[in-house]
Specification:
The complex is a heterotrimer of chains A (160), B (596) and C (588). With 160 residues, chain A is an alpha+beta fold. Chain A has 7 helices and 4 strands; from the N terminus they run ααααβααβββα. Chain B has 5 domains: 89 residues, Glutaredoxin; 210 residues, Rossmann fold (3-Layer(aba) Sandwich), CATH 3.40.50.11540; 84 residues, Roll (Ubiquitin-like (UB roll)), CATH 3.10.20; 90 residues, Up-down Bundle (de novo design (two linked rop proteins)); 56 residues, Alpha-Beta Plaits. Chain B is 40% helix and 14% strand. In chain B, the strands form 5 sheets. A 5-stranded mixed beta sheet of chain B has the order 10-9-13-11-12. In chain B, strands 2-1-3-4 form a 4-stranded mixed beta sheet, with helices on one face. A 4-stranded parallel beta sheet of chain B has the order 7-6-5-8, with helices on both faces. In chain B, strand 15 and strand 16 form a beta hairpin. Chain B is globular and about 90 Å long. Chain B starts with a strand and ends with a strand. The relative contact order of chain B is 0.08. The chains are: A alpha+beta (160), B alpha/beta (596), C alpha/beta (588). At the B-C interface, helix 17, helix 18 and helix 19 of B face helix 2 of C.
């Protein structure tokens, strides 16, 4: 039975096969990257290598294009995004401790996604909730007056 | 049995946000309940431009525009309007509203109120996903006329005569562009629709495509015939999924109906259109960057000449126009260049669509004849500034444009007069700014945008805008000096004249125009460390006034431990510790914190 | 002819050229940075802006064509100020470490800043900060020094068609980097060093061994042995402000001894040896033992390129080591034995026009008896710096001769440094080996010169031999693609990784203040220096080199024999990542 991974790569490959039948196949690069992102949620190096081989486009060029357009994600995005506010107020109130707790809990750093694809960690400049400092935002929801213990509880509540 | 009533629901993002999708389900449910399903048709339209009144729904007959209602109100509206034929007045959008006026006179396409809809003529009126609706309003008639009665040269002559100029920003005469591309001899030529609208706050193109995609298709096929091209490409932002879906559907429908593909309408003329998606780069609205992006490259503009008309996409002669320009083409063919050129000013003909936003009562899309004054748009159509606030400025042209002060309000809008005033027409963003906004901050906002969108190719834009932004940040933080204002002007003028593409050449406009028209505000920031609008946080000073009862709420809330004081005694803020987050101001129940 | 006005004076100029080209011919040198005559027009730096009457904005003179009656101003107060501000903006995002920079005194940006009259700074702010990439054996990449002129990106894609470099990210955060910002050593970079040649600053620079070498030269326990590639002598004078074209063979030999080398050998000797082996190998293949066409293997950038881009053609490539590696192998065996020294005590240093040779020296396939054969490779630029640093007056020094037994060369060994030279040298010998007759007309004009691809035919013993020569990896691609589709098209192909061959190597002196890297006139003069040396030699055929003959008699036996096979031949294998030469795409 085909795994989800096989399915994706086959879908991408047949999309590229079709692209190659068009005039100026190279010009389909951005469409192919869109397709890859649609299939995988992000564009990995492995996928770019695959595109490079299939379409005969140098990886340096694909990398250049993928990093130029902000629509493309080059790292996996978790189901939830955690933004840790590092504005002045939060910093003063111990945002760093909160951040370190999250780092340890999820084993990820800024811009990374946890292994279970649940969380992506991001840095935020002031979230405008200084009165609640230190704060984090998970998706659209703000959690304030945090302690390391509270943060762990909040994260756990999302995993349920 | 034909539907007797018709409900058109705005399907723009703002209305979706206000649960228009759920509302549709509710309407269907309600219609079923009353066995009205066969009698009432439901359409979704592109953004109707009444974003502040969302969700917006039009029920015909009656031309009643409902706004600001919720799912719970649906049963009442259906029962009253459709069953009892009594519109529910309390949800009907303000009598005076421009759209009301427009719909009341619908059918009389000559003139209605201060608005005049040419490009957006069908938006909100037809079902954009149904080609028959478009055809019923003379859709593809212009194409038929072109293919049966007109030679390419005659089409070009007509467009030239109309005086139509590019609506994407620079205002290059459209007919001349067509003529230049037609003149080139080549085995292949391309026609491109630039739908990479990216100005913050501007959504004219999106609405036009969402509301009336066929007019774009028709315009492009006409151009293809006129210049001798057989391939068309619509380059559209990936961030506009509904517009993408609709233009793709329109292309498919047009092909099925014989308006696209081989031997169009039996004329022997072949034309195909494909859709290419952008991927989040503002600079791709610049034509050379756009073409490179279609070719699969980074969207970094290249020097001109060669111009696209000579060597464009894949090195072939290429004609690029933006969405609004295309939307004008069928009308010009149908109603004639003479009629079209009778509208507008001496050098700017026809109408222009603006996305009116900011501190103005009615926000949304506005299409007015060229020559309408800023005052008419802001006060007569937009309804003026809400809340008795003072008008301060109007920003036109988005991040490439400038801020005009009150003395320019009677400027008649056309390409030249706006440029003369220090702004630009641009693609049509119009943001009204009142006394609560800080002009330095506004300039910073726009420059932050362009700086972030700079492709990084040429030095002045890549490095220069960065330095300008740093200076602006310095000024808003109270660290600026008199020299900084001069530096902004020196850099701004250089960047304008030395940058490679239009993005860089216009990036300094918001800064230069605010310095020109609001220099006093810059000087206050620099000399007095004061922001008169109270926007620049770093320049604020928080003080405890005598109203303080010593409740200690502020002391507890302060993240920086800057508040001291014994219970029940007046507290004090240590300005050295204060980080100006404003929490004390927010938590004080006694209005005892003053910011200045 | 049309009339244009420059600074109010009328001039008659050819139409269909840019303002910059017209101005250059009239003696107006408009300042420039991203422009390079061999590369596509970028129009990015905006340093070459001029005022054109009737234009709202300044125009980039590198990109804008002249037209009848055009009024151009190149040097008004306003344009000078704009240019100065532009260069100042570049400096504002550039490290201020000129006095500790490798290119101090030889930097285009420094010269430009001086010429613009930048004496004060107005706009300083945040500077970029990136890690240096020190991973490559040859080329160091320092994005902090990069001013984004894009010449490296263009030469890598347009001339070399390697596409190892590209722009990544955008705006203020734009960086030139290999795909995925991977370490350079893991990329498809062939280490040819042309990015260094065209870089106006030191964003690309060779891995420098000068300090280490000075240290080792002071080590009394080592026997220090140098070899010099042909092209080093033809170009090093330029680093001492000489006009291109003067060779300094004997002066260099003397200077190397003064630097502390005990023996100075000539890579041209081993070039003669290469010809003995390669010509024999070709004749074997020609007679049915092995694949044709045979492709030369002297250029190390081409070898890396082969393994990553054309692994299917590995069997076509000669198994001969490069002359440098042949000499190094002999230094640690034949020569060590001769002077009765422990080869481990020999420091073998190669002075090369090449950056890729630094990479080649580290190839495990080239080890001899478990030792690295070439201990250190320095470029012409590094050597020039060492000579200056040691206070040696290269231009007025008394010339000296190379040491024996690896120092004497024929004229055929000399012309190795020029594109077509290996082929010409091989033909001179192969002809005689095959027919037993001496080839009289030994200057083969068809394969000389700077045309990208040169083809020739010769008849040996009634049989037609079709040869082709390509220099620069982009030109090589054309020939190699042709071979893939039509393997019979050629019998013998010479490929050099750098434009012009070794004379245009990635380690050659930087272009002077008013010249450009890859300048054809300069390359021709360097070539002429080598052709002159060849002409003035009595022995011009490799097989006639008496020292080579002695070497075979005393040590190697015969070409392609067992000892040769062990010391002078090597092998190649496919490597990752695989390189891709796109069909129609060029970086724009």
């Amino acid at each position: 039975m085909a795994t989800a991974e096989d399915k994706n790569i086959n879908a991408l490959k047949s999309f590229m096969q079709e692209s190659k039948t068009k005039d100026h196949p190279d010009s389909q690069l951005i469409s192919i990257l869109h397709k890859a992102q649609e299939l995988y949620g992000y564009i990995s190096q492995e996928v770019m290598n695959e595109i490079s081989k299939e379409m005969n486009i140098p990886t340096a060029h694909i990398w250049g294009v993928a990093t130029f357009y902000h629509y493309f994600n080059l790292k996996p995005k978790g189901k939830h995004s955690i933004s840790v506010c590092l504005g002045t107020a939060c910093y003063v109130k111990g945002a760093e401790e909160i951040l370190n707790t999250i780092r340890e809990e999820l084993k990820i750093d800024f811009g990374q996604t946890s292994e279970d694809n649940f969380f992506t960690l991001q840095e935020a400049r002031c979230l405008g909730a200084c009165g609640l400092a230190p704060v984090i935002m998970i998706d659209d929801k703000i959690y304030g007056s945090l302690t390391p213990k509270k943060v762990v509880e909040i994260i756990k509540s999302y995993k349920k | 049995m034909p539907a007797r009533f018709n409900i058109t629901l705005c399907d723009g993002p703002s209305c979706i946000h206000k649960r228009s999708k759920e509302i549709v389900l509710r309407i269907e449910e309600e219609l079923k309940k009353h066995a009205l399903t066969d009698k009432v048709g439901i359409n979704l339209s592109g953004c109707l431009g009444m974003c502040d009144k969302g969700p917006v729904m039009i029920i015909n007959p009656g031309y009643a525009i409902y706004g600001s209602f919720t799912e719970e109100d649906v049963p009442e509206i259906i029962q009253q309007h459709i069953l009892k034929k009594k519109p529910v007045v309390r949800f009907i959008v303000d009598e005076d509203h421009l759209y009301n006026r427009f719909f009341r006179v619908f059918g009389d396409v000559n003139f209605f109120g201060k608005q005049m809809r040419i490009a957006l003529r069908n938006c909100g009126i037809i079902d954009p996903e149904n080609i028959d609706d478009y055809i019923s309003l003379r859709g593809y008639e212009a194409l038929a006329r072109v293919l049966t009665d007109m030679s390419p040269a005659k089409v070009i002559a007509e467009i030239k005569k109309s005086g139509l100029r590019g609506r994407g920003g620079a205002g290059f005469p459209t007919g001349i562009k067509w003529e230049l591309t037609a003149k080139e001899k080549s085995d292949e030529k391309y026609v491109i629709c630039n739908a990479d609208e990216g100005d913050p706050g501007a959504f004219m193109d999106r609405s036009a495509i969402e509301g009336d995609p066929h007019t774009i298709v028709e315009g492009m096929v006409i151009a293809g015939f006129a210049i001798g091209a057989s391939r068309g490409i619509v380059y559209i932002r990936a961030e506009y999924p509904l517009a993408v879906k609709r233009i793709k559907k329109a292309i498919a429908e047009a092909r099925e109906s014989g308006f696209l593909g081989e031997n169009i309408l039996g004329s022997g003329f072949n034309f195909e259109i494909e859709v290419r998606l952008g991927a989040g780069a503002f600079v791709c609205g610049e034509e050379t960057a756009l073409m490179l992006s279609i070719e699969g490259h980074r969207g970094m503009p290249r020097p001109r000449p060669p111009f696209p008309s000579v060597s464009g996409l894949f090195g072939k002669p290429t004609l690029i126009n933006n969405v609004e320009t295309w939307a004008n083409i069928p009308v010009i063919i149908l109603d004639g260049a003479s009629w079209f050129s009778s509208l507008g000013t001496e050098k700017s003909k026809g109408t222009k669509v603006f996305a009116l936003a900011g501190k103005v009562k009615n926000t949304g899309l506005v299409e007015v004849p060229m020559g309408t004054t800023l005052r008419q748009i802001i006060y007569d159509i937009g309804g003026g500034i809400p809340g008795d606030k003072q008008f301060k400025a109007v920003q036109t042209g988005g991040p490439s444009g400038g801020c005009l002060s009150e003395e320019y309000l009677d400027t008649k809008i056309d390409y030249e007069s706006l440029a003369k005033a220090g702004s630009i027409m641009g693609s049509g963003g119009m943001i009204v700014i009142d006394e609560d906004s800080c002009m330095v901050n506004i300039a910073k906002f726009f420059l932050e945008f362009t700086q972030n969108e700079s492709c990084g190719k040429c030095t002045p834009c890549r490095e220069g805008t960065k330095r300008m932004l740093e200076i602006l940040i310095r000024i808003t933080e109270g660290k600026g000096t008199e020299k900084d204002i001069d530096k902004l002007q020196r850099l701004g003028n250089m960047i304008k004249k030395a940058s490679l593409c239009g993005l860089g050449q216009s990036a300094p406009n918001p800064v230069l125009s605010t310095i020109k028209n609001f220099r006093a505000e810059y000087e206050e920031h620099v000399h007095n460390k004061r922001c008169r609008a109270g926007v620049c946080q770093h320049l604020l000073v928080y003080e405890v006034t005598d109203k303080c009862v010593g409740c200690a709420a502020c002391k507890k809330a302060c993240p920086a431990d800057a508040v001291s004081g014994s219970p029940k005694a007046k507290h004090h803020i240590d300005i050295n510790k204060c980080i100006k987050c404003g929490v004390c101001f927010k938590v004080c129940k006694f209005n005892a914190i003053r910011k200045s | 002819m049309i009339t244009i006005f420059i600074n109010d004076k009328p001039y008659q100029v050819e139409p269909e050229q840019t303002i910059m080209q017209a101005a250059d011919r009239l003696g107006f040198h408009i300042p420039r940075l991203c422009y390079h005559p061999k590369l596509s027009i970028e129009g990015a730096c905006r340093v070459c802006i001029v005022e054109v009457v009737g234009m709202r904005n300044y125009v980039a003179s590198c990109a804008y064509p002249v037209s009848e009656g055009m009024k151009i101003y190149t040097n008004t107060e306003e344009i000078r100020r704009a240019r100065r501000d532009i260069v100042e903006l570049i400096l504002d995002n550039h490290p201020e470490d000129c006095h500790t920079c490798e290119r101090d005194g030889n930097c285009e940006l420094q010269r430009l800043a001086f010429a613009m009259g930048i004496r004060k700074r107005h706009f300083e702010g945040e500077k970029k900060h990136y890690e240096k990439d020190l991973s490559s054996a040859s080329v160091i990449r320092d994005p902090n020094k990069c001013i984004l002129c894009g010449r490296c990106v263009r030469i890598c894609s347009e001339i070399q068609k390697v596409n190892a470099l590209g722009y990544a990210h955008r705006g203020f955060k734009t960086v030139v980097m290999p795909a995925y910002n991977m370490p350079f050593k893991d990329s498809v970079c062939t280490t040819c060093g042309q990015c260094i040649n065209v870089c106006p600053t030191s964003a690309f620079i060779e891995k420098n061994f000068t300090q280490e070498l000075f240290q080792k030269l002071g080590d009394k326990s080592l026997i220090k042995v140098a070899q010099i590639a042909p092209s080093v002598r033809a170009a090093i004078g330029e680093a001492f402000a000489l006009e291109p074209g003067r060779q300094l063979e004997k002066e260099l030999t003397a200077a190397l001894r003064k630097l502390g080398f005990d023996y100075v050998f000539d890579t041209q000797f081993s070039a003669d040896l290469t010809i003995m082996e390669e010509a024999s190998e070709f004749l074997e293949r020609f007679q049915g033992k092995g694949k044709l066409p045979m492709i030369t293997s002297c250029s190390s950038a081409w070898m890396k390129c082969l393994e990553q881009f054309y692994p299917d053609l590995i069997d076509n490539v000669s198994t001969c080591k490069s002359p440098m590696s042949m000499a190094s192998a002999l230094i640690k065996t034949y020569f060590a034995k001769k002077i009765k020294a422990d080869p481990k005590k020999i420091l073998s240093v190669a002075c090369m026009c090449c950056t890729a040779k630094k990479y080649e020296a580290l190839r495990p396939e080239l080890m001899v008896d478990g030792m690295q054969a070439t201990d250190m490779v320095i470029t012409t630029r590094e050597l020039a710096w060492m000579i200056k640093s040691a206070g040696i007056d290269l231009l007025h020094i008394k010339g000296e001769e190379f040491d024996h037994p690896l120092g004497y060369s024929s004229g055929a060994g000399t012309i190795f440094g020029v594109t077509g030279g290996v082929m010409e040298a091989a033909i001179r010998t192969a002809y005689e080996l095959y027919t037993g007759e001496t080839l009289l007309d030994i200057e083969i004009q068809d394969i000389r010169g700077l045309k990208g691809i040169k083809e020739g035919k010769l008849i040996i013993d009634g049989k037609e031999i079709r040869v082709a020569v390509a220099h620069g990896l982009g030109n090589a691609n054309e020939i190699l693609s042709a071979i893939r589709t039509d393997p019979e098209r050629y019998h013998f192909v010479e490929i050099m990784g750098c434009p012009g061959g070794c004379i245009g190597g990635g380690g050659q002196p930087y272009a002077g203040s008013n010249s450009m890297p890859l300048d054809e006139e300069c390359l021709m003069k360097r070539a002429e220096a080598l052709y002159g040396l060849d002409r003035n030699k009595t022995i011009r055929r490799s097989h006639e080199n008496p020292d080579v003959q002695r070497l075979y008699k005393e040590f190697l036996g015969r070409p392609l024999g067992a000892v040769s096979h062990k010391l002078l031949h090597t092998h190649y294998s496919p490597k990752e990542p695989r390189g891709i030469v796109p069909a129609e795409l060029t970086v724009k």
